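Kindly inspect this today.
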Amino acid sequence: MKGIAEFRLAGLTARELIPNRWDLIAFPLVFGVLVLAGIGARQSLAPITTLNQAAISLDPLHLPEYALRTTLRMLSALAVSLVFTFVYGTLAAKSRRAEIVLVPLLDILQSIPVLGYVPFIVPIFFSLFPGRVAGAEAAVVFAIFTAQAWNMTFSFYQSLRTVPRDLEEATRGFHFSAWLKFWRLEVPFAMPGLIWNMMMSMSGSWFFIVAVEAITINGKTIMLPGIGAYLATAIKEGSLGSIAWVIFAMTVVIVLYDQLMFRPLVAWADKFRFEQTSSEDVPESWFLQLLHRARLIQVVSAPIDRMFGAVLRARLIRPKPQAEDPDAAEPTVSRRLDFLWYVAVVLAAIYLVWQIAIFIGTEVGWPDVANAFLLGLYTLIRVVSLIVIASAIWVPVGVMVGLRPKLAEKIQPLAQFLAAFPANLLFPVFVVAIVHFGANPDIWLSPLIILGTQWYILFNVIAGTTAYPSDFREAAANFHIRGWQWWRDVMLPGIFPYFVTGAITAAGGAWNASIVAEVVQWKDTTLVAHGLGAYIYQMSAKGDLPRLVLGIAVMSLIVTTFNRMLWRPLYRYAENRLRLD
């Protein structure tokens, strides 16, 4: 009779199918996450009347359920943002004609306030899921998506533009298809920066949760159960104890998804660093190690790994060698197509400007336009000044954290919490202090603009530092390069592309935040700073649609022009001079 060790099922021995002690910890965690996700999905299929009947309770016992539902919305939005990043970022990086349109459009999209999308998307999603909670859930997920996607897309775009040329040559030598090159080279190379921007996207979502979990349709406001709705109710009722419970719940949620998702991703992505020697100090994750040691988890995940591997290998060899650039063989045709494309883009831009002019022309005169541009100049000065100050603070801190993986493990949850902390909770403090000391709102309301967006710089600098090759650092140490020379010749060039990504997304977020930060109210006191953000806020409050459109158009024009004059040349410099070749 054969022994039990010889019995095989699907190529595995019976012993390999017996859970080990690590499975006793890992399997309940993984199974519990799947069950919670299933519960959240089932709740989204309930009739919309259940939301109208159920009020948001401030009982802390409801916070676990609210936290679960908010986290599922944010993770769903993150998944959508990841797909958008891969598609949009790849098109912008690989097609020079698409880049002409997509990159300026991305500049505009990130400067439009999240709430600016809500009035347009709510009716669409409610019509797709009539009478169901899923309509409201989909609208909220999309609104959160608009707070997550842009910095991830910029990060992926920057990584694709700076892939080392020798690695690209190697893929051509092995006749990789575009599909295989994307998954075997480009995505792994972009992964360290993308993961840190995913962290920032999750943290930045918390700032808008209060606003987006309240959906207005046909004059009725529907409160979706969640952390944001709980916090909005607590603020409305003035319950400081409930606000404290919200902060505690946010802290627990951030620590959980940091330890169960982001810390394993950071440790996993470390193997994609571009270097010839292995690093002695690498990031670790107890949960990732637990999954590797759990026997049953490995058995269950093996078919999935094989399936993905088969998909990636489906087009390993090109059936017929061909030129990398289809237009290279016919430069005359390529130039003609470029010319026609540029003409089409210019005509489309002129038509858009003409339609805006027709819409606002009857009620808005040239003095209004001049005033909007003047206010835009004030906000531009604030944004640029704050980005410079934030860079001077967070670049050294980010490098220090990125060079020390053990320190990063401790700082990572704290940084995510600080980035997630709702900055609007600090608005009353600023109002009281400015009124008490008689300070100038034009100056002292300015820090509110950067409170939530400065973290883009920190997170991207940490990503750039962790992705910097260890052998480059070791070479600098062997040549005794220290002090300012080390910053100038070693580290700053290495992290520069990541810094540009962080600065451009921080600037876009600052323009977005100016709309709520240049007008601050607490009880009966309202402080207003001169700027385009305050102008847009006031026109929105008055319902003056022509001047509101004028303000948004001027903001989009300033952001796009500034990015073209400053950030795009810096991107080009990083692509041409600072590749890790």
Q: What stands out?
A: Residues 1-10, 322-329 have pLDDT under 50 and may be disordered.
